[in-house]
Amino acid sequence: MNLSTVSMGDKDKGDREMKKFTKEEKSWAFYDWGNSAYSIIITTAVFPLFYKSAATEAGVSLSDSTAYLGYTIAIFTFILAMIGPIMGTIADYEGMKKKFFTGFFLLGTVSTAMLAFIPSDNWLLLLICYTFAALGATGSNLFYDAFIVDVTTEKRMNNVSAFGYGLGYIGSTIPFILSIAVILLATNEVIPVSVINASRIAFLITAVWWIVFSIPLLRNVHQRYYIEREPSPVAQSFKRLGKTVREIRQYRALFLFLIAYFFYIDGVGTIISMSTAYGTDLGLSSTSLLIVLFATQVVAAPFAILYGRLSERFTGKKMLYVGICVYIVVCIYAFFLETITDFWILAMLVATSQGGIQALSRSYFGKLVPKENSNEFFGFYNIFGKFAAILGPLLVAVTSQVTGNSSMGVFSLVVLFIIGLFILSRVPKPKPHAPVDEVAPE
Asked: Which domains occur in the chain, in start order?
């Protein structure tokens, strides 16, 4: 075979073409654009307030309503963490990945839309519907993440993953602005809609946005890597999953990375989830917190893409080091936080690395997994990500209570980032004889 038939001019042209995202890559990334509306409107901004109002109206105490929401989140998180690898292993069979993705996508979008039609005083039914919506959103994300091995090459994976996160941050701001605008106009009686119905409109906006921008993925993304179907696929899937666990030593690089990821992503998630409570302690109003949240989304978008571009020059692993170090600075800076200006600075620092560290973690893991078993391994990725949401909040809570200082609680997260950074530095390149021998992420 003659491999030296490409002229330098042709090579330069090919390099320029490779800088462009393919139809499959863009179709895959736009799911982030659509799905991220759920994350900000349902998970973070509108639904929690809507639910709390419904529970209060029904006579549920503030502490009990918060506890019930916490139990609900814990339940669906545990369910997904447990079934993730099992579903992923089955989805590795030919043609199954898209079916699993579509099933969870429909569960999430339909349940999100149904939130708009539940009576405002039925807080229990709201939580049940929210559980199904959350299962659909997080379940579809498992298979969406796993599709990254099908839509792009290892060389382009960092950039494509970062592009997806960047689109997600940008895309989420548009329905967020629309939803908040409707709610504020209703609050000030500018439009003849009650605040409750304005929130319901926000739920419908989320569902429609999510559905519309998922169409490219449903049409253009296909499972390229798979295992041939065999008799008794469910039973065989359990056997393959058991074999993977038994032969874990052969995947040392992959599982060592997951341990590192468990620690540092726990710190990232804790800072994101507890930022509004921390801002409230500093005296920020609800309106100010929404503005900070919006600004964070806007700033995070270009920085997520920048991380992807820089990873091409400095490698994904080094950029993960940078992101973790930025978060260590954030934790230290939080210890000296005193004013609202300080909170803004802190939020912008988080925004510079929030998307980048998540995007490069996904692509780094995508390079390590055996492609034909990508769903199975992204199931483990899902487990580590979900259970990582436990240790950080617990550490912040205990430290804050013992010291009587919420700043000390945030500062304590430094421990998680340092442990994650150390373990990440120990992740080796896959050995030539390992199951992932064709992968060399760094």
From this structure: 22-226 (1.20.1250.20), 248-442 (1.20.1250.20)
